[in-house]
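Two proteins, back to back. First:
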Amino acid sequence: MVDKKKIKTEKGDSKRVPTGIEGFDELCGGGLLRNRSYLLSGAAGCGKTIFGLQYLYNGITKYGENGIYIATEERPDQVRENVLKFGWDFEALEDEGKLAIIDAC
């Protein structure tokens, strides 16, 4: 278990950005540190893309952020179709100007 009291941050970096992913934010002391870069690494099929897409969706729908997704392995239409399985309507977010999906395939 993560001891939240032991999480140390540099001055000015103490604000965390919630991911909105159930259980994850609690493990990380409230979310990811603001102004940091993170690398998700793992075997194929372990959930890296879903994690990133859920973070993006939650940022837009729960926290009022705008987002951009650069599709490097799946075409944007495949991404839109896949996220519908989770109830995430990326096409509607694009129509509202809150999300841009860039095709880099």
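And the second protein:
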Amino acid sequence: MHYKYIGKIIPWILLAITLASGSGCSNAEKNVAAPNEAEDDSTRILTSTNIQDVDLLKTYPEKKITIDDIADIRYIPLETNEESVIGFARKVSFGDDKIFVYDGQGDQILIFDNDGKYLSKINRKDAGPHGYNKITDMTVDFDSQLVYIMDLSFPRKLKAYDFDGYRQKEFTIPNEPSINQMTMFNSDKIIFHCQPSGGLNTEEVIGTHPYRWIDTRTGAVTPVDIEIEHPESSTYTVIDGNHARMTSIEMYPLLKTGKSVVLADYTYPTVYQSDGKNFKPLFTKPEGKKSATGKIPMSTVWAMSDRYILFFVTEKSLNKNTDSIEQGGTRALLYDRKTGEIIDPDWNRRDVKGGSIMMEWNWEMPENTFVTTYSSSTLKMLDEKGRLSGRLKEIADSIDEEANDVLVLMKMKK
């Protein structure tokens, strides 16, 4: 299946852009120690010459894949009541016995058990001692039972809450407002990716070290020792009157799968995977270099298990007439690490007639698991058209159109 996207046009209040552009990751390059000086001795970016190269620029055959044949499927309807309504599940983090949902619309974090039963929530949008202004991202340390949020303030703050919703830590993150994504590396460190949000009418240069560590013990911010000569952004921002207009390609370079983090930069050739302590090279992919026509190949890892890697591949270009970025040749590629086969997957499901499967972005996934969702309205529509069967039909018949999403966990077979 070919995944087709268009750039998202998102209005932003000018003040928010002004705050973000005051000091971005590009400027922060001058305010942090050099990688060799700042890097924690316990964390290394390892090298290897004996890793596989995966060519993502070739054309691969389209092939029908019935997901039930390669994965065990589990549905989790998230309980809906007056306290647990989710406006928009922007990010979900899965633990052994709890599921954390960052509700971007409600600006809160809801906690469910692994069967979807609502437990509690963190909603501290106030000026009190435990309050926050606006959540922009979340990551969960299940070992220490802490939820870290990035609070939209100036200067930006990283705040840690226990699972009962009480603030335990707070760190000011100086000169680092352009944070695109963050995830737990281990209990001592969070890794985050810098992306320009204040580049006005231009693609802002974000320095040669677009990834940062945050020490969760001290709040110290240091660069990850991966140097990228010309890092690319997936966003482009212009000023339009009193508003900023941003176009973006929905893709992220960091993937959390179980306790492991995969770093697959858009254009950098080496893909790394953590072992809890170090980053080790996993494989290489084509380096993204701008062509004579101005197109830049970009790719990342969308989902991963021990056997399968799902890549997202696209080309970025700048349309100077519309002051926006465009993408072309967008596709997903499924790599079977056991057989070496690479295909353009046309996903099918036994309990759904027709349709496609769109994996979730920027979620903290269970190990060896791909994740997607169904909204209640989509399930109702499919049910009315007679396209559902089995457990999914049972769920559709038991919920109404205002219910929370149904999580679909696909634990990949080996």
